[in-house]
């Protein structure tokens, strides 16, 4: 029984990721396995990767997933990102 519930949840996650891909990614592109793991991970995530690797897209996908699928109650969501452009603007 447990395996069936787990399989159903994974199928829901895959369908959810497909919808998010259609919203965020250019036609024909898909999230990598590592990106999918970050999107469907429970709890807090910390995305650390090189430039141009899709960090901001993954954060946006995670937010979409949280807001459309998971019940957050009164806990809320905090999403923080950092760019060198933002640092320069703050310094100026």
Q: How would the blueprint of this fold be written?
A:
Elements: H1 2-24, H2 33-40, H3 55-68, H4 84-91
Helix pairs in contact: 1-3, 2-3
Task: Describe this protein's structure.
The protein is mostly helical and 92 residues long. It is 58% helix and 0% strand. The chain has 4 helices and no strands. The chain has helices at 2-24, 33-40, 55-68, 84-91. Helix 1 (2-24) crosses helix 3 (55-68).
How many individual β-strands?
0
The secondary-structure element order is HHHH
Query: What percent of the residues sit in helical stretches (DSSP H or I)?
Result: 55-70%
Q: Give the CA-based shape.
A: globular
Individual helix count: 4
Q: What is the residue-mean pLDDT, rounded to a whole number?
A: 77
Residue ranges: pLDDT <50 for 5 or more in a row?
1-5
Main β-sheet description: none
Brief account:
The protein has 92 residues and is an all-alpha fold. Helix content is 58%, strand content 0%.
């Amino acid at each position: 029984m447990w395996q069936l519930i787990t399989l159903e949840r994974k199928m829901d996650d895959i369908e959810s990721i497909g919808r998010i891909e259609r919203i965020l990614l250019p036609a024909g592109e898909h999230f990598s396995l590592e990106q999918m793991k970050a999107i469907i991970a429970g709890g807090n995530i910390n995305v650390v990767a090189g430039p141009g690797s899709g960090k901001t897209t993954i954060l946006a996908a995670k937010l979409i997933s949280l807001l459309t699928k998971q019940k957050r109650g009164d806990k809320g969501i905090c999403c923080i990102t950092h760019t060198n452009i933002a640092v320069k603007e703050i310094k100026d």
